[in-house]
Amino acid sequence: MKDDLRLFILDAGDKYPSDSPLKVEINAERVLAMLPKSTIECTRDCIQIDCGGKEGIVILVTPETIELRLPTIEWTKSVS
Question: Which of 35, 39, 69, 79 has the smallest number of CB atoms closer than 10 Å to its CB?
Answer without folding.
Answer: 79
